[in-house]
């Protein structure tokens, strides 16, 4: 028996260590440290200096539809001026080597009346993509310095919604080597040419709780249906220290879909094990209707 | 100790012990990509739940627990985890052993129900004390002992079978 155990232990000790391990661990630590610096709640992966500038530029357009009563009321009557707006591929950052691969596509908006607004968004997308590419080059340098290895990053965008009223764009970044991924969303009101922020849709902060409770209900229902749908939420995980979703951030990622429903988005690892991937929850309008500032966008 | 120090502590600890935890993860999930995923997920969880580490001295058992739980999460997701109750298990002791002939030792361990597998791996492969294992698995020491005994019992039968062949 002891011999058998020794043999098993030997087999265990001989489990080969893949060369990527070091890189995967460093990446995870880097993410962890970054997250810690940015204070757990802020999930945005953009560098600080860049968000501040972009936020300032975008702020001007966000203040709006729902803050002034007459403005909101007039929305329905505005003729469709923004419907020419569309998304095009602007440019692509590429790096192609045997072991290092980067492919980052940058979206750009065209056809908005308000060219200043259009330019500010396009600039944001460009800066984001550049930051991703820079980060990739940094990683490449690091990997090279420790003797080489495989790394890859893919960036791109997807138009989630495009109708008379709403244009929603997702930008994503996926590491093809360690499974890390992050997404950003913009929901644009085409008629009024403004960027919709989550808090701007609601009268007060009550939406945070109503939406969060609905998401938790959905998670538990999914889990009950099939226990492989696993989320780090109270009611599913056994130990309190494993709970990582309590409520959404007031600026949680979101978009409005083609059916006029609010969709709340989470990055991979944000609320569930990595195997669950990035997650989206469609919030029934019933759940938020009392909190909404106006009914303009939702059905 | 403030949060940044704790973060640095975790980072250092993980860097120093990464191979150990990779092997542990691998023993559960049995393939390289999933094992890397488990290590990655576990580090992520360690940072986002660092408040649950009351005393930095316990970092070792604390991180073991995270890795084991993360690996089990993944297996759950992959549906390789078969929950076996005690009755079926006692059947395993007697009749169902030849199911494992022609398989290597690690496969025999993986065929063990999760609760037995964890104690066996932690005790014999990671050389941990029963107290520590109890802490990691959040069980009483006596429970760990019982499971370990049971695990050995199951495997012994298994292996005699293999020897006799």
TrEMBL record, chain B:
Ranges where the RNA polymerase sigma factor 70 region 4 type domain occurs: 105-153
Family as reported in the entry's similarity comment: Belongs to the sigma-70 factor family. ECF subfamily.
UniProt cross-references to Pfam families, sorted A to Z: Sigma70_r2, Sigma70_r4_2
Residue ranges of domain RNA polymerase sigma-70 region in the record: 14-80
Key words of the record: Sigma factor, Transcription, Transcription regulation
This protein's name: RNA polymerase sigma70
GO biological process annotation, one example: DNA-templated transcription initiation
GO molecular function, one term: sigma factor activity
């Amino acid at each position: 028996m002891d011999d058998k155990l020794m043999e098993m232990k030997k087999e265990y000790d001989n489990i080969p260590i893949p060369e990527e391990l070091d890189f995967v661990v460093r990446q995870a630590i880097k993410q962890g440290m970054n997250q810690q610096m940015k204070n757990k709640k802020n999930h945005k992966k953009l560098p600080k200096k860049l968000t501040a500038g972009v936020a300032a530029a975008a702020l001007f357009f966000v203040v709006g539809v729902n803050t002034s009563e007459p403005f909101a009321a007039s929305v329905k009557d505005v003729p469709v001026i923004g419907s020419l707006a569309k998304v095009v591929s602007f440019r692509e950052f590429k790096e192609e080597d045997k072991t290092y691969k980067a492919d980052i596509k940058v979206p750009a908006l065209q056809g908005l009346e308000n060219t200043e607004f259009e330019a500010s968004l396009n600039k944001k997308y460009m800066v984001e993509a550049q930051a991703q590419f820079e980060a990739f080059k940094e990683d490449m340098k690091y990997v090279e310095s420790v003797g080489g290895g495989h790394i890859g990053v893919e960036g791109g965008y997807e138009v989630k919604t495009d109708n008379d009223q709403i244009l929603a764009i997702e930008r994503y970044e996926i590491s093809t080597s360690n499974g890390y991924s992050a997404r950003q969303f913009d929901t644009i009101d085409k008629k009024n040419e403004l960027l919709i922020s989550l808090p701007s849709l609601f009268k007060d902060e009550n939406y945070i709780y109503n939406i969060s409770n609905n998401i938790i209900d959905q998670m538990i229902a999914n889990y009950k249906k099939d226990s492989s749908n696993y989320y780090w939420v109270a009611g599913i995980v056994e130990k309190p220290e494993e709970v990582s979703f309590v409520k959404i951030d007031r600026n949680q990622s979101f978009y409005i879909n083609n059916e006029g429903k609010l969709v709340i988005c989470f990055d991979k690892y944000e609320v569930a094990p990595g195997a669950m991937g990035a997650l989206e929850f469609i919030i029934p309008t019933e759940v938020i209707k009392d909190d909404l500032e106006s009914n303009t966008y939702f059905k | 100790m403030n949060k940044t120090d704790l973060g640095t502590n975790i980072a250092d600890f993980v860097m120093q012990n990464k191979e150990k935890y990779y092997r542990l993860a691998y023993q559960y999930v049995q393939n390289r990509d999933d094992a890397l995923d488990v290590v990655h997920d576990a580090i992520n969880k360690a940072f986002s739940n660092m408040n649950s580490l009351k005393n930095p001295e316990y970092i070792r058992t604390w991180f073991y627990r995270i890795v084991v739980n993360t690996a089990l999460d993944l297996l759950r997701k992959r549906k390789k985890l078969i929950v076996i109750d005690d009755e079926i298990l006692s059947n395993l002791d007697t009749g169902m052993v030849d199911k494992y002939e022609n398989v290597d030792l690690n496969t025999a361990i993986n065929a063990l129900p999760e609760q037995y597998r964890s104690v066996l791996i932690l005790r014999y492969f990671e050389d941990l004390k029963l107290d520590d294992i109890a802490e990691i698995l959040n069980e009483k020491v006596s429970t760990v002992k019982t499971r370990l005994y049971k695990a050995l019992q199951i495997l012994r039968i298994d292996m005699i079978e293999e020897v006799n062949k």
